[in-house]
Amino acid sequence: VEQNIISDNFSLGKPYPNPFNPRVGIELTLDSSDSYDVSIYNLKGERIKDWSSVKLDAGKQTLHWNSMDEDGNISPSGVYFFTVMGKNKREHRKLLLIR
Question: What average pLDDT does the structure give for the chain?
Answer without folding.
Answer: 90
